[in-house]
Amino acid sequence: MLELRNVSFTVENGKGGLEIINDISLTVNDGEFLVITGPNGGGKSTLARLIMGIEQPTGGQIFIDGEDITNLSVTERARVGVGYAFQQPPRFKGLTVRRLLSLAHGAELPEDECCAYLTNVGLCSKDYLNREIDASLSGGEVKRIEIASLMARELKLAIFDEPEAGIDLWSFSMLVETFKTMSRRRHNSVIIISHQERIMQLADNIAVVAGGKLKSYGTKDEIFPKLMNELGENCGFRGGNA
Q: Would you say residue 163 has pLDDT above 60?
C-alpha cells in the first residue's frame, strides 16, 4: 500500500519559493488501479517523480506498506518494489532488449517470456529481441520497451507516466489491453498518469491534480462523468490517441 501524507514540493526560482505540489494526501491500496489526471502543468508528473524518488519532497511523508520511504533514493525505492516508466525513457547503447528485460526481471528470462512482454506492448518480438536500445530506435519504440521492462519486474507499485504519448493507435490499443490484464490480475498496485478516456475507464479510482493540489478523488463512476461534463476539452481529455 502506498500512502502520501501532506506531501509538498517547492523549488527556488530566484523570486522565492515556487510551490509545485501543495499538501497532497493520498492512499493507493494493494491491487488498486489509480489514474491521475488533470490539466497539463498541474503537477501530475512531479507527483509521480516524488513517489519514485526522482525528486525529494520538501514537506510531508511517503510510505510503502507502512515503511517510511520519504528519504530513500531511486535505487532504494526500486529495491522495495517501486517501478517507474518515464515519458521519455533513456537509451542504452550496447544493451539489447532481451538483456534489459532479464535485468529488470532479476534473472535470465526465457525467450518465449521476453517475446510475450514485447507482444503485449505492440512490438514484433523477432524484430526487437536482439536489438540494442540505441538511437536506431524511435522514441515510441523505446517507450514501449521500457513499459515491457516494468511488466517483467515483480513490483509492489508500478507507475506509468503518460504511456500513450508518442505511440500509434494500434500500439495504444495493445497497451490498453495489457493494462486491462494487469487490472484483472490485481498482482500489484498501478498508477497511470493519463488524459486518455480509455485508460481512465480501466481505473478503480481517479485522482484529479491541478495547480499542485488534489482537486478531487474517488471511484471511476464518481469522478469520470464529472470530468467529462465539467472539464472536457479544457483539460485536454481525449478518447483516442493524438
A: yes
Tell me which DSSP letter residue 120 carries: H
Q: 32 phi and psi, to 5 degrees?
A: -80, 145
Residue that is written with C-alpha cell 479510482 in the block: 205
d(Cα 97, Cα 120) in Å, to the nearest integer? Answer: 14
What phi, psi does 216 have (nearest 5°)? -160, 155
One-letter amino acid for residue 20 of the chain? I
Q: What is the pLDDT of residue 5?
A: 98
Ranges of CATH 3.40.50.300 domains, the chain: 1-81+159-165+191-237
Q: What is the C-alpha separation between 115 and 224, in angstroms, rounded?
A: 35
Q: Which residues contact 107 (CB under 8 A, 6 or more apart)?
A: none
Are 216 and 60 a contacting pair, CB within 8 Å?
no
**Whole-prediction pTM value?**
0.87
pLDDT digits (tens, 9 = 90+) for 189-216: 899 999 888 889 889 999 999 999 999 9
Say yes or no to pLDDT of 60 above 90: yes
CATH of domain 1-81+159-165+191-237: 3.40.50.300
